[in-house]
Amino acid sequence: MQAEQVISGEWGGGAFPYRVGHRKLGMWLFIVSDSLTFSALLIGYSYVRASSDNWPTPFPFWPSIIFSSVMTLCLLSSSLTMVMAVKASARGDKAGARKWIWGTILGGASFIVLHLIEWNHLISEGLRPFALPDEWAHRWPGASPLFGATFFAITGLHMFHVFTGLIYLASVAVMVKRLKHEDVEISGLYWHFVDLVWMFVFPMIYLLSVDFKG
Amino acid sequence: MSAHTEEEPHDAGTTKLFVSVWVWLLVMTAVEVFLGYIHFDLKMKLTILLGLSIIKAALIMAYFMHLRFERLSLILTLVPAMVMCICLLFVFFPDSFRSSSLRYKFSGHDQTTGVNP
Question: pLDDT tens per residue, chain B (117 residues)?
Fold first, then answer.
């Protein structure tokens, strides 16, 4: 009697306890695990910075803070277009969903272009993963050379996620007529996660290192 | 495919709601950038910036990722475990403060780091 009650209940099999289906649950679980990866990196960076005597704060308003703020705007807007894509897909408007997804990809691509310009600027100044440019070493004596390592590792891993996300979204956009609505939602979950990580990376890496003289 | 069909997606958010969430995210970002340029106690600055980021993350998860309209069982499966793991990582910070107080002090520079310059 009790066994029958269990089997006929939600956790007895054949039902959807979370009401999301296995693919979406899989994406959520991946997002949780990836959040832990980024948290570990960000907390590792915080640890290194907290234990350092001195840390460079080299980001001038132009170009770094302006660029990174525009990048934040790009990602936030791309999240909005992604939400619109999911809404369009929910009402069966596949062509509309495709258009909105292309808009999302445009936002993400702008992010990557701006970020690569930022990277190029810092690398040409002399920043390396384990070495600071000479001017910085003079300006912030005793500053940890790990500025480069933490900066490139965190922003690099994030940029890799954005890039992979663009390929994922492009595949969804191209195949949208053959895909279910749930698949559009799942790609949206990944993209919002990428945006969510940037919400932490931007203040912790950029805003805490503004160059007040710049 | 199982015999049960998946529940139909419920369209539980209007465009107006999503746009207003987006506007709030932009406003909070602008506040963060503004605060980045104000000189005040680094610990307080860190707390406020991280607090704002957590609020932004919560808004994105709740509305854009639709978590607010999902089953409570899903929220309880995902969120508390993630929060706990992240908080457990904070265990290491006292060691970073100890480590910073052991370092050689280069004199005459502003506090750009940690809590024990």
Answer: 443 334 434 556 889 999 999 999 999 999 999 999 988 888 899 899 999 999 999 999 999 999 988 888 899 999 999 999 999 999 999 999 898 888 877 766 655 565 443
Note which residues in 35-64 of chain B have CB less than 8 A from chain A.
35-37, 39, 45-46, 49-50, 52-53, 56-57, 60-61, 63-64
Query: How near does any CA of chain B get to the CA of A125, in Å?
Result: 21
Residue B80, both tokens: 């508390």
Give the model's pLDDT for residue B6. 40
- Domain assignment of residue A26, yes or no: no
Which residue range forms the structural domain that includes residue A133?
A: 66-214
- Confidence (pTM): 0.88
The CATH number linked to A208 is: 1.20.120.80
Domain-embedded: residue A2: no
B113 CB neighbours in chain A (<8 A) are 49-50, 52-55
Two tokens, residue B22: 């987006």
In a domain, A190, yes or no: yes
**Maximum CA extent, chain B:** 72
Is A115 in contact with A147 (CB distance < 8 Å)? no
Distance from CA of B7 to the nearest CA of A (A): 7
Q: Minimal Cα–Cα distance from A160 to chain B, Å?
A: 20
Q: What is the pLDDT of residues A193-209, one digit of tens each?
A: 999 999 999 999 999 99
pLDDT at A80: 96
In a domain, A42, yes or no: no
Does residue B6 sit at the A interface (CB-CB below 8 Å)? yes
Interface check A147 vs B, CB under 8 A: no
Amino acid letter, A126: G
What number of C-beta contacts closer than 8 Å exist between A and B? 179
The total number of structural domains in chain A stands at 1
Long-range contact list for A169-175, CB < 8 A, 24+ apart? A169/A101, A169/A104, A169/A105, A169/A108, A170/A105, A172/A101, A173/A98, A173/A101, A173/A102, A173/A105
